TrEMBL record:
Keywords: Membrane, Transmembrane, Transmembrane helix. The chain crosses the membrane at residues 78-101, 107-128. This is Uncharacterized protein. It comes from Caballeronia cordobensis.
Length: 195
């Protein structure tokens, strides 16, 4: 099916934003689901759902700019993903090798250290998840900053406030965007070229 006018508009916005942010234009997939737009670092692809496509044009612009902002973080996202994968593999490999090479199969010599490993794994997962949440919050703020640099601080703030009425938006993102708008009013900075 050929792309609709809105889909073509989104593709053009992505190409322009990517040029402005000096990043290769990510691929785009239009989906039916209502999960909201998202950037997939693994495939360098932005997913845009029907609900997002139906947004008023000024909102759609900011949402697209935000997602292209994520494309600039691809290396960081892939590095985080690789670290998580390697840490998990290493953590699970250690007990497997230890138990496979253990001569003693007495339940106390296998079960007790095994439970210890499980407890350590759960504790480390919690710490890693908290670390991951902090990292993704920082990436969200960075993508917002890039959207504001492309579209302007005031329109980006208006869009984020409008989006907050539709979906949960963290207070930190709203606070940072308000601060950015305030700073821009005091000291207007030029937008990054592209639009
Ligand atoms: Zn985001």
């Amino acid at each position: 099916m050929p792309p609709s006018a809105t889909e073509r508009h989104v593709l053009a916005l992505i190409a322009t934003d990517a040029a402005a942010l000096h990043v290769a234009p990510p691929r785009v997939r239009f989906v039916e689901s209502c999960g909201g737009p998202c950037y997939e670092a693994l495939f360098n692809r932005i997913e845009i759902d029907r609900e997002t496509l139906a947004l008023p044009e000024p909102l759609l612009r900011i949402v697209v700019a935000h997602e292209v902002g994520h494309a600039t973080q691809r290396a960081t996202m892939l590095f985080d993903f690789a670290c998580t994968l390697m840490a998990t593999t290493a953590f699970l490999t250690i007990p497997c090798i230890a138990f496979a090479t253990a001569a003693d199969i007495d339940i106390w010599h296998v079960g007790v250290p095994g439970l210890g490993f499980m407890a350590a794994f759960i504790a480390c997962s919690k710490i890693w998840r908290a670390h991951g949440a902090k990292r993704s919050a920082a990436l969200e703020l960075d993508a917002d900053a890039k959207a504001a640099a492309i579209c302007g601080a005031a329109p980006a703030l208006a869009a984020l406030e409008a989006m907050a009425t539709r979906a949960p938006i963290s207070a930190a993102r709203l606070h940072a965007m308000r601060a950015r708008d305030e700073a821009h009013r005091r000291n207007p900075a030029p937008r990054v070229s592209g639009r």
